[in-house]
Design a protein that fits this description.
Bound molecules: nicotinamide-adenine-dinucleotide
Strand content: 15-25%
Distance between the termini: 29 Å
Radius of gyration: 21 Å
Shape: globular
Strand order of the largest sheet: 8-7-6-9-10-11-12
Structural class: alpha/beta
Length: 330
């Protein structure tokens, strides 16, 4: 099998080398993205993989099909940017990748702790020899009630870790998972909004989840609530977050992801003019901690991200069942 890998980062290269011999596939690595203009370079390959940072829709899939590409793998867990229905309609098989949820779950806990212990301001002060404690008083995670929305792989791991801190945990999901009941209580969304000190979301981005945290439900939350998002930026309505921070209804935000982060995050923009007013405005608040979509970024996750995307392409090519073949947005 011949595979063309787009968006290849230096930190992925050694894993591509390992996986090509493991599965006996030929992989060409390119650093740039897959676009309508360069899709003809896929001619002669059987499968394509991209990093999942930008939209792959009808136009690109049609051109992939014209170039006889039958298999497509996105090297991320989230696949909201891939038009799976259209790919399926024209006969291109698509899969995503998977990796242990602990990278994102641990990062989520870290965001909670950074916000709770006011570490952003602490580190700024430390750098200018201001060792005062005024204004930096925090709270312990174990003394708080935490709400987890979305109890899939990552949400479940977040709950397990929170249990270790001694937090009381309320959960909400469309589908309840019995294993969660050891550590958390499922409640309706209204109860979760009303009672929790910290709320973290771990749902996929879909039309039905876009803006699931918005002005209406922020209003129902406790004063000073802390919101955490290490899933997808668009799950939280940014305008409502800004209003909530300005009015002090929201006591802190930990955001690893941001609406319209594509072409900003994961690039060095040191000398560029970045056009994203909401990002710049929100970032300046002392109680808003933002990281550049890096919750996944551990050695183990990057290795698995590369390995399973190639394994997926190979299995689909060989006609074997593959657990992470995508047939619809879930
Ligand atoms: P998962 O599919 O295992 O779990 C998602 C859960 O959300 C499921 O239990 C599902 O039932 C639930 N859900 C869906 N719609 C819902 C709704 N309207 N209300 C409540 N629950 C709902 O996925 P996962 O592996 O846990 O990943 C979750 C998301 O995290 C991914 O979709 C991805 O966007 C994001 N992610 C971010 C990073 C990062 O680096 N920041 C890395 C990996 C994944």
């Amino acid at each position: 099998m011949k595979i063309l890998a787009f968006d290849v980062k230096n930190y992925e290269r050694k894993y591509f080398d390992e996986v090509s011999s493991k599965y006996n596939v030929e992989i060409k690595l390119v650093e740039h993205s897959l676009t309508e203009e360069n899709v003809s370079m896929c001619k002669g390959y059987d499968g394509v993989t991209t990093l999942g940072l930008y939209k792959i829709g009808k136009n690109i899939f049609d051109k992939l099909k014209e170039n006889n590409i039958g298999y497509f793998a996105v090297r991320s867990i989230g696949y909201n940017n891939i038009d799976i229905e259209y790919a399926k309609k024209i006969g291109i098989k698509v899969c995503n990748t998977h990796y242990a949820p602990s990278s994102v779950a641990e990062f989520t806990i870290m965001l909670m702790l950074i916000v709770l212990r006011k570490y952003k301001q602490t580190i700024y002060r430390q750098n200018v020899n201001n060792f005062s404690l005024e204004g930096l008083i925090g709270k312990t995670l174990g003394s708080l009630k935490v709400g987890v929305i979305g109890t899939g792989k990552i949400g479940k791991n977040v709950i397990e870790l929170l249990h270790g801190f001694g937090s009381e945990i309320l959960a909400f999901d469309k589908y309840e998972n019995k294993e969660i009941l050891k550590y958390a209580k499922y409640v309706d969304k209204e109860t979760l909004y009303k009672e929790c000190d910290i709320i973290t979301v771990h749902c996929p981005l879909m039309e039905s989840t876009k803006g699931m945290i918005n002005a209406d439900n922020i209003e129902k939350m406790k004063d000073g609530v802390i919101l955490i998002n290490a899933a997808r930026g668009e799950l939280m309505d940014i305008h409502s977050l800004i209003k909530g921070i300005e009015s002090k209804k929201i006591g802190g935000l930990g955001l690893d992801v941001f609406e319209d982060e594509t072409n900003i995050y994961h690039e060095n923009h040191l000398n560029d003019i970045i056009s994203n007013m909401k990002m710049a405005y929100l970032r300046q608040f002392p109680n808003v901690v933002m990281t550049p979509h890096m919750a996944f970024f551990t050695e183990a996750s990057v290795q698995e991200m590369v390995t399973y995307s190639i394994e997926g392409l190979k299995k689909m090519y060989d006609g074997e069942p593959y657990e992470f073949e995508l047939t619809a947005l879930n």
